[in-house]
Amino acid sequence: MNTSSPADRHWHREPFISKPVLRWGFWSALLIYLALAIGSMDINWSRVMEGIPRGMNFIISFFPPDFTSRSDAILDGILESLWMTVTSTVVGILISIPVGIGAARNLSVLPVYYICRGIIALSRTFPEIILAIFFVKLFGFGPFAGFVTLSIATVGFYGKLLAEDIEDIDKAQAEAIRSTGCSWLQWLNYAIQPQVTPRAIGLAAYRFDINFRESAVVGIVGGGGIGATLLTAFDRYEFESAAAILLIIIFIVMAVEYSSGWLRKWVQ
Amino acid sequence: MGTVMGSDRQWHHRPLKLKLLLWFCWLLGLGIFITCWNKISEKTMWFFVTDAPSQAKDLATRMVPPRWDYLDNLWLPIWDTFNIATLGTLIAFFIAVPVAFCAARNTTPNTFLVRPIALFIIASSRSINSLIWALMLVTIIGPGILAGIIAIGLRSIGFIAKLLYEAIEEIEPVQVEAITATGASGGQVLSFGIFPQVLPALAGISVYRWDINIRESTILGLVGAGGIGLQLEASISTLAWTQVSIILLVILITVILSEWVSARVRYSII
Q1: Which domains occur in chain B, in start order?
Q2: How far apart are CA B135 and CA B130, in angstroms?
């Protein structure tokens, strides 16, 4: 009896990484890395233990959060964040439309393409907060620095996605318009723009949402907005106010996300 | 002449009503923008803004040449940054997977209680930036790398869970039905019918988030949560601009490398 009957053989599912060398290599590398990483971490456990009751306090302070005692500062910060969000989204998108058109390979000539791709890459490399540090240095404290930061971040994001959308358009429609003998601008207006507008509006709403979230962060380094209020609340261990601010941020982000989803559906 | 000649009628891009509505929207938008701009301009000291070019020139001269020998102090912070991003992503991975299964419409155990809770976890994790999570954790468990890891983990849960639950909702029901038809239990259906279908998506999402996390963990040090941001903060506050430029250079290289690795891995998965 050399051959086993089919019923004896057990079926095994296919492993995710099919090459055994790669698979075992991956798992052992992961294990070695984990040992090294956890071994090299310098953690002050007594300080962590000390923090646990404080963490519980923080969680308790969410029930109920204190909206009233710092309401002026909170309202001021939220409004400033919203102003920054609106202006930076508008200005950022206005700049990124020509950049995005220039960065689409099917519309622009090679030198323009490289310049626009360069602008996009440049504004995407550094995290917003590092840009914010520098703009606070250059323009002074306040919402203007935050506005510039978010605008630049918007150019990188929106320009890139707009360029990709333009590259993905239906060529037949573009060719049909072109064959009527229109000018380049007419071509842009009648062949390209209608195809990308729905996606572009959706992206704008999405970026608005991101800009609001980021506007809470630039305040930490002095760029204006709700971040500064939040930082102060944490520094003074006023967890009730901090909880209130966090809840407001979550609420606004959810509201913006919900309405942008609705807007996208309406546009399409 | 009762009939309208065909050539008299002109083709319009949009009907009149829609045109008016669009004009109204544009006007409204312009109004909002101008109001917001005025508010910001009120709070801005324009003297400092007009002064910016000379400030920039000054800063640029102070930042070059980068202080290359400072690089030796940066190896450990880079390793820490890498650990924050990687361990944070790992933690998020293990929490996000069950959350995503609870949030997906077709796998959630309970639509009225469990699903809204899972969706709320996702929303609150996503709405708060990792820097703010870090700020919170530093006040609670103290400064250091652990606060950074947990901050990155908390922020990534929402991201991974959201993309994963969307992937779960888009799976092919036929395969699930086939597994169910063999008499498999709920857990077996999950493990043989659903999980294999979303595994590539899950791997791709995690690597993508890891790449974002590397970028974010470079700055967590600004609020004291470990990594290379600590050196950045220290150098900026002591006005050691030649150190700042070398740190920025290192961050730039790290970010580009992680983006390249993530792109390669995602390309090989798909």
Answers
A1: 73-269 (1.10.3720.10)
A2: 8
